[in-house]
Every structure is written in C-alpha cells, then in structure tokens.
Amino acid sequence: MENSLTTRQQRSSNIELLRILAMVGIVFTHLAGNSHITLMDDSFNRFVYELFKYGGGTGNNLFILISGYFMVYSRFKSSKVIRLTLEITFYSISLYLLSCCVGAADFSVKHFIQSMVPLISGRGGYWFAVTYIILYLLSAVLNKGILNASKKQLQLTIIVLLFIFSFMPSVVHQFISINDFWYSQLAWMITIYILGAYLRLYPIVKLKSNTFNFILFISFLILIIPCRIIHTSSYNAVLDPIISVIIKIFSSLEMYNFPDLISAILLFSIFCNINVKYDKYINSFGSATFGVYLIHNNIWFKEYMWVNIFKVCNFQYKTYFVLYCFFVVLIIMLVGTIIDIIRREYLEKSIMSFSFLSVICNVFDSKLKD
C-alpha cells in the first residue's frame, strides 16, 4: 500500500481515489467475513452481501498493481521501511491494549510482547502489511531485473508466474490435489508487482478505452455474483460437475483467482485513464488507507468492532441492511483516516525527526547505491 506515487512532485489524485475505492472494497469484505452474517436466502440483502465479498481480493491486487506501476522507476528508501514498521507496531500495541480495556482480549505479558513485534510474531492479523514490507525490501532487486529485461522476457516471466501462482491453485486444484508450493502470498505479490511494472513500461492499447474496460468489468460482476450465490446454495449439488467447477473458480475469494486479478487490472486502467486534478483532500484520504487497514483489521479488535460496536449481524434481515453497511464502512473510513492523519502529524514526524535515524538511513541508502 505504497504512498509515494508522484506526478510532478504530487501524487495523482485519480490513483489516490482508486486507492480509497480499493480500501472501501477491502473493508466491505472484512464486514462480510467478520460480522457473523448468516444470510443464505435469495433476498436482495444476500445478493449485496455476496457483492461485498468481491472487494477484498480485487482491492489487495489493486494496491500491489499501483505499487509496481509507480515504484518501478523509484529508488529504495530505508526510511520508508522504518515508517511502515513504526506504523504497524503503533497500531498493534494500541489496539491490543484497547481490546484489553474493553474486554475484547485478556491481558497477558506474552500477548503484549507479541503485539510489540507484530512483524516477527505474526500477531495482529497484518499478513498483507508484513508481506508488503518484504516486497518493498525486494523492490530494488526486482526493479533492476524488470528494467533490464526485454519486453518478451517480461511477458514470458509474467505468463510463467501467473500459471504457477494463479492457474495452478485456482483451476488445476479443482481437478487434482496440489501442495502449498503452488501458492504463497509473497510470490503472488511479486507476480502482481511485475505485472504492474509491465503495464507502466508497455501500456496495453486495448486498456486505453474506458468503454471497453467498464463493459468488461460489469460483465465480470454479472457473472461472478450469481456464481458465488449458487456455490453456497443447495443448487450447486445438482449441477453438472464441470459447471460446478467453473462456478467454484469464479466464486473463489482468494486474491490469486483470475477474475479478481482481471477486475483489478480493469479498474486500474479505468482510473489511469481518468483525468482528476490534484486534490489535497483526496490525497490525504488516499495516504491514510494503510492506517485504515491496520485499524479495522487488527486480530484482537476486529471482532469486537464488528459484533459489539456496529452489531452488523443484527441488521442482516432489515430492509435497510445495505444502507447500514454503507454507513458503517463510511464511519470506519472517516475515523480511521482522522486517526492516521493525527498519528502522522504528531507521532511519526517527531520520531522521524531524530537525527540518528536520518544518519542510519542515509548510510544504508548510500551503500545500496554502490
């Protein structure tokens, strides 16, 4: 969830708007997955509930596509690793202590220590954040390889990576059992990063047409949502096995599933083609999306938030269920953004102003250039 996208010293507001949309989709998916919703009927609420699930994989892919697209020409900055690490650690400790205060978690020295080192302990539920930092650490080597490769070499690399880390686990796995070698979160992020960089270096002419992008994106939505409803219903048991497999592929919620990948590419292309003037408010919201993710998806706090604070499941059979869900997501986005902006202004700037950190970062970055 890189926040260094720049165009003439300013981040492009169209891409920041896309970043916000991607985070909204992720929050909706977490709402659907953590609110104990049990909708299984054929109601409108069920249809929208299934639609909510669609945003997570697409949103995650969008963040990595954006990173690959804009970071391919950028230089590695160790200060960014420090900023990300401090941000993750701050929210991990704060939300653990808050969870203990409200009764969502029992305090223990072991869990407190784990919250202090979320990158090592894996506690906090921040798999995306941890994997992203590793991806950023590898970005200097990845960029060098990408920029030195020919167009055909990149195409072949992307095809091979997509076959191994998308086609094998999402399609072949439906017919034969395969081991975990065929998928890892880091490997998939590297794949999407390279794909994003390729779109920057060699733009696809067809994707320059927003009419084409929009029609194809809507077509995917029309196909995917019914598939996901059928897959979780009793109708799936009486379908032809081949049709059942196709429905299962299109109903997968994993980010490596190709419908989520294609949807991310189409949405990314749509927003790249939109001309949005620089807007400081859009950019401020866009820069806080990583903080919103860390706040609302903390492993100790998230269930308490969805079940005890917002009580989303209590509204699942109400006529205003969808409106309430939009209200909840809006509150999370607004509150999370405000908290993260305050954190950056008063905490991050103070810490990063320490001279010894600047010296360490400058020495490390200069060594990396050699």
Summarize the structure.
The chain has 370 residues and is mainly α. It has helices at residues 13-34, 44-53, 55-71, 78-102, 109-116, 118-121, 127-148, 151-170, 185-201, 210-231, 241-251, 258-272, 280-287, 289-296, 302-309, 321-352, 355-369.
Rounded to the nearest angstrom, the distance between the terminal CA atoms is: 28 Å
* Integer average pLDDT: 86
Parts with pLDDT < 50 across at least 5 consecutive residues: 1-9
Helix share, percent: over 70%
Question: What do you see in this structure?
Answer:
- The protein has 370 residues and is mainly α.
- The protein has one domain (13-342).
- The chain has 17 helices and no strands.
- The chain has helices at 13-34, 44-53, 55-71, 78-102, 109-116, 118-121, 127-148, 151-170, 185-201, 210-231, 241-251, 258-272, 280-287, 289-296, 302-309, 321-352, 355-369.
- Helix 4 (78-102) packs antiparallel against helix 5 (109-116), helix 10 (210-231) runs antiparallel to helix 12 (258-272) and helix 14 (289-296) packs across helix 16.
- The radius of gyration is 21 Å and the shape is globular.
- 38% of the residues are buried.
- Mean pLDDT is 86; it is low at 1-9.
Helix and strand topology:
Layout lengths: L12 H22 L9 H10 L1 H17 L6 H25 L6 H8 L1 H4 L5 H22 L2 H20 L14 H17 L8 H22 L9 H11 L6 H15 L7 H8 L1 H8 L5 H8 L11 H32 L2 H15 L1
Helix pairs in contact: 1-2, 1-3, 1-12, 1-13, 1-14, 1-16, 2-10, 3-9, 3-12, 4-5, 4-7, 7-9, 8-9, 10-11, 10-12, 14-16
